[in-house]
């Protein structure tokens, strides 16, 4: 797919259901890009919030996006292991040099021992009411949250023991 060739630099753009830009990661290196999925990596990249505030990521991260699943997964390599941050979101689209998705507030934080915590349920309920999420969307998101939790429990896909390490090794070849 044009622009998603390995080694290319892309942005990641997160939106809210109402179309408002939520957050932008300035540079992510494409490790694998197809019509169905994007695996990217970044380290110490600039992140801009919707209110203009900025911050820099602290550690290397491997990002997984798929057109079939209503979630994306970020594996962060820290000194004490791999932590995952999972966003319940729309499937991604790639346009104008950016992976774009709608963030639906619900998040799952996964610890190195594969225990996890569901985050931002209150924010989800608030935005669901404010932005009038259709019932069918609520059902899709709930089903995909269950699917994501199954992946975590089964250590499937990005949660398999070697996934993040293998992609991080490839990322290092682009940085040298």
UniProtKB/TrEMBL annotation:
<protein>
    <recommendedName>
        <fullName>Nucleoside triphosphate/diphosphate phosphatase</fullName>
        <ecNumber>3.6.1.15</ecNumber>
        <ecNumber>3.6.1.6</ecNumber>
    </recommendedName>
</protein>
<dbReference type="GO" id="GO:0017110">
    <property type="term" value="F:nucleoside diphosphate phosphatase activity"/>
</dbReference>
<dbReference type="GO" id="GO:0017111">
    <property type="term" value="F:ribonucleoside triphosphate phosphatase activity"/>
</dbReference>
<feature type="binding site">
    <location>
        <position position="105"/>
    </location>
    <ligand>
        <name>Mg(2+) 2</name>
    </ligand>
</feature>
<dbReference type="Pfam" id="PF04167">
    <property type="entry name" value="DUF402"/>
</dbReference>
<dbReference type="InterPro" id="IPR050212">
    <property type="entry name" value="Ntdp-like"/>
</dbReference>
<dbReference type="GO" id="GO:0000287">
    <property type="term" value="F:magnesium ion binding"/>
</dbReference>
<feature type="binding site">
    <location>
        <position position="103"/>
    </location>
    <ligand>
        <name>Mg(2+) 1</name>
    </ligand>
</feature>
<keyword id="KW-0460">Magnesium</keyword>
<keyword id="KW-0378">Hydrolase</keyword>
<comment type="similarity">
    <text>Belongs to the Ntdp family.</text>
</comment>
<dbReference type="InterPro" id="IPR016882">
    <property type="entry name" value="SA1684"/>
</dbReference>
<dbReference type="InterPro" id="IPR007295">
    <property type="entry name" value="DUF402"/>
</dbReference>
<feature type="binding site">
    <location>
        <position position="87"/>
    </location>
    <ligand>
        <name>Mg(2+) 1</name>
    </ligand>
</feature>
<feature type="domain" description="DUF402">
    <location>
        <begin position="18"/>
        <end position="156"/>
    </location>
</feature>
<keyword id="KW-0479">Metal-binding</keyword>
<feature type="binding site">
    <location>
        <position position="120"/>
    </location>
    <ligand>
        <name>Mg(2+) 2</name>
    </ligand>
</feature>
<feature type="binding site">
    <location>
        <position position="107"/>
    </location>
    <ligand>
        <name>Mg(2+) 1</name>
    </ligand>
</feature>
<dbReference type="InterPro" id="IPR035930">
    <property type="entry name" value="FomD-like_sf"/>
</dbReference>
<feature type="binding site">
    <location>
        <position position="107"/>
    </location>
    <ligand>
        <name>Mg(2+) 2</name>
    </ligand>
</feature>
<feature type="active site" description="Proton donor">
    <location>
        <position position="23"/>
    </location>
</feature>
<feature type="binding site">
    <location>
        <position position="123"/>
    </location>
    <ligand>
        <name>Mg(2+) 2</name>
    </ligand>
</feature>
<comment type="function">
    <text>Has nucleoside phosphatase activity towards nucleoside triphosphates and nucleoside diphosphates.</text>
</comment>
């Amino acid at each position: 797919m044009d622009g998603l060739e390995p080694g290319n630099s892309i942005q990641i753009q997160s939106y809210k259901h109402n179309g408002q830009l939520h957050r932008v990661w300035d540079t992510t290196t494409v490790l694998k890009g197809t019509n169905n999925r994007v695996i990217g990596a970044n380290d110490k990249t600039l992140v801009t919030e919707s209110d203009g505030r900025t911050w820099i990521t602290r550690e290397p991260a491997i990002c997984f996006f798929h057109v079939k699943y209503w979630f994306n997964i970020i594996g962060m390599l820290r000194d004490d292991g791999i932590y995952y941050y999972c966003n319940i979101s729309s499937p991604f689209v790639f346009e104008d040099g950016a992976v774009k998705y709608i963030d639906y507030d619900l998040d799952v934080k996964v610890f190195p021992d594969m225990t996890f915590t569901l985050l931002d349920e209150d924010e989800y309920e608030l935005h669901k009411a404010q932005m009038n999420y259709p019932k069918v969307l609520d059902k899709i998101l709930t089903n995909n949250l269950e699917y994501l939790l199954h992946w975590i429990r089964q250590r499937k896909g990005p949660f398999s023991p070697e996934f993040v390490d293998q992609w991080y090794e490839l990322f290092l070849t682009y940085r040298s």
